[in-house]
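hey so u asked for the seq, here:
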Amino acid sequence: GSRPWSGASDTHRPDHPAVLVIAPPARDITEHTAGHAELVERSRRDPLTGIPNRLALAEQIEIALSRAARTRDIVAVLFCDLDDFKLVNDGYGHETGDKMLVAVARTILQTVRPGDFAARFGGDEFVVLLPVTGEADGEAIAERIRSAVADADSSQPMDVSTGRE
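ran it, structure tokens below
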């Protein structure tokens, strides 16, 4: 049901450098190609939260700014940092901190609109890239995200003795 990838090789003949010899496909490289595609995808995802990472964010910012320059659209970049997150890791352990980061990523993804782009920038920092109609629109979306993260924190009580929801 799918086309296999195949590899071919080429070489110049030593006695006639202008002649290029292309050998017919000799091996199926479908698995190699799929493996490479998976590695590329994994390099653009945060391993903890599963959302795009800083590398993917940089690519999306470049695309969004290029598009905005052509169309005169406005793009907002919202930087989200969790206040005092170090206290969670220090007080309850990194496993609890990791669970909190996953929950925050999930909340951000559930709060942004289709077509908006959310990424984990690093540590306890997230970035949302989105088209807006103006400054007030960007501020309203930022407040909606802040409120959703704050509400998620209180709506899913965590047992502080185990760090589990």
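Confidence is low (pLDDT under 50) at residues 157-165. The first strand starts at residue 6 and ends at 7.
lmk if thats what u needed
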